[in-house]
Specification:
By secondary structure, the protein is α+β, with helices and mostly antiparallel strands. It has helices at about 20-25, 35-45, 85-90, 115-139; strands spanning about 1-5, 55, 60-65, 70-75, 80, 100, 105-110. The protein starts with a strand and ends with a helix.
Length: about 140
């Protein structure tokens, strides 16, 4: 897994200081949200190709593979996963019905991560989208 870094705005964990990398971001997240995000991150990492990168974008951890893949963050009363794709949200709407969703966001309790199986499905769908977009552009 490669690591990259980029700045931006978004959820803050340490006041107004933007985290430099994913470890720094997670270190600033209070428990139980930190453990929850670590589980989500592990599920994502197990599903992305080795050449995928982790970065901070909009002040939150993101994964990139042939473009933006997805991000995750902790907020005061919930955690969120950002699939960065309305079509993936639509594809998995039945599996997401027990979660609060809005345009591009899946919210879940700070102490209850999304299942690893669901996270992996979302990641695989995003990878397929990005690969398809790359093929269309280069073909």
């Amino acid at each position: 897994m490669k690591k990259a870094n980029s700045g931006g705005r978004g959820p803050a964990t340490n006041g107004n200081v933007a985290p430099k990398n994913v470890e720094e971001y997670l270190a600033g997240v209070p428990e139980p949200a930190r453990s929850t995000l670590n589980r989500v991150r592990a599920a994502i990492r197990s599903a992305v190709p080795p050449e995928a990168t982790e970065a901070i974008s909009y002040r939150m951890p993101t994964f990139r593979y042939k473009g933006a893949l997805l991000g995750f963050a902790a907020f005061s009363n919930h955690c969120s996963l950002f699939p960065m794709s309305l079509s993936v949200m639509e594809t998995f709407k039945n599996e997401l019905k027990d979660f609060h969703t809005s345009k591009g966001t899946i919210r879940f309790p700070v102490d209850k991560p999304l299942s690893a199986a669901l996270v992996k499905k979302l990641v695989k769908a995003r990878i397929a989208e990005n690969e398809h977009k790359k093929q269309r552009r280069s073909g």
